[in-house]
Structure formats: structure tokens, C-alpha cells
């Protein structure tokens, strides 16, 4: 990777990935784009262009101007938001992806886009969900993610575009909050623990979902993009995870640092139904085998770091 275009660079993944890529490959070699501008180092400390990913020609013109050799396409609507506006989700998630894949094809660029545990559905085996298994999701986001995995495979097989992807679990970060996902509670809980020592979870007790700390997610993207292409059998997209956790596990991990913290429940039926349709835990063995996926943070290490960094940020 030498000249990298990132879409959705002000989002939850983009704001950290862009800075990590600039550290690794040089500031001028990472062109950040987003539909909006913001007071963020992503905008102020390196090349930045405003871009609506639904405008294919504009995306092509920016990629061509900087002669990019890698496209990292992150702009998308998350699961809960997609459920409240499925038509917009289809337009943004699918047409944005198609435009980005076309840019990669035209410029002969490497390509990454994230899939999600949302690509699984209620008929998928729930525990240690295999890499290759039933994928009949019941959400618009899930439909988009499965179609995205297939479309990325298609661009690889039909046009030889070097497409790669992972199925991310819920991502937890202290830098940028997620917007409109089902797993967002796992970020909110840390903010509320520090601010109010109390959190009301919209996801019910005992509901397990896979989660990962953002530094591990950023590392996974960079490692996968650097991996030897001849080793990649399951390109689009690899199961990756760091932990399978339910709300009470976050409560226990936080209480090790804030003993008076308490958690109660007020379940949101829409997001609970989405969570219930997703796996309890996924099997990341193919990612480990094919490109050496590994993690540094379990729930305890993550909670310690998250609380420390968030405390500094909120003060
Ligand atoms: C969401 O909850 O929509 C995302 C995801 C798991 O893809 N965090």
C-alpha cells in the first residue's frame, strides 16, 4: 500500500484507521474522505476531500487525482439506523460499495471493505459460527453485508480486483462513538460508567455478541491488507473476534475499576431482535491460519485501557 483512499474517514473505524495508516505509510499517502468536514486531525493533519460515496464520478476523480493504489471503503449505515431507513441503507451501502469497487477496478487498486457479524442470521449456527455457513440475515444491514461479500468476490473472480474483507464484531473505541449500531451499548457503558456510575442497557442480560477493541480492529485491517495474496482463500470476508460478551460481562469488568458502578436493563425490542438474530460467538480460525490474525486485548485489558483513555478525554 502506497497511496490509500479512505471513505468514511470520520466514522468510528475511519478516524483511527486513517491516523494509523498515516503513521505507517506517511501522512501524504493517505487521502481521507467523508461526506462532512469536522474539527479532527483526519481533516486538519493530512490530505482530505469531501466525498459523497453515492457520487461515483467524484470518487473516481479524487482517486485519479492522487493516483491511489488502495481503496479502503468504510462509509456505510450501521444496523439499527439501516433498520429505520432500509431504502437509504440499500442506496448508501450498496451503491457506495459498487462505486468504490469500480474505482478499484479502473485504477487497478487493492480493495478493503468491512463486513460484519450482521451478515449472519437466525438460521446460522449460533456458537463458534464457522467461516463458511448459512447466511440468511433478517436485517437490511445484513442483506447489504452478504451482498457486499458476494460482490467483492465477484470483482475478484471476474475482474481480478484484489478484494479483501473481515466480518467485524461490535467495535469499542474511546476516540469516536459509533452511530446507529446494535452493539453501541458496549461503548456507551464506558462513558456512562465514568459520568454517572450507572448505565441502563437496551440489550438484555445474557445476550452474547462478539466484540473487539479498536486497536485490534485497526491492526487486523493493516495485517490483512499486507498479507500474501496467495494465502487468502476466504477473501471476502474473514470472521474475526476478540471476545464474546453480554452486558453483565461489561458490568463485571468495569466494576474492577469502579466498584460502585451498576447496570440495569430497559430492552429496546428493535435492537434486541437484531442482536438475537446474530451469533453468540464466531470462529476466527481461518483468519488466524490464512494471514495470522491475532488480538492484544481481552475484555479486562480493554476495559482498563478504555477507562483510562476515556477519563483523560472527558476531563
Ligand atoms: C452494528 O452494531 O451495526 C455494528 C456491527 C456489528 O456491524 N457494530
TrEMBL record:
Any one Pfam family match given in the protein's UniProt record, by short name: Epimerase
GO biological process, one term: L-threonine catabolic process
InterPro entries xref list: Epimerase_deHydtase, NAD(P)-bd_dom_sf, NAD(P)_epim/dehydratase
Domain of life: Bacteria
One GO MF term attached to the UniProt entry: L-threonine 3-dehydrogenase activity
NAD-dependent epimerase/dehydratase domain span: 4-230
Family label: Belongs to the NAD(P)-dependent epimerase/dehydratase family.
Protein name: L-threonine 3-dehydrogenase
UniProt organism field: Alkalibacillus haloalkaliphilus
The organism's taxonomic lineage, starting at the top: Bacteria, Bacillati, Bacillota, Bacilli, Bacillales
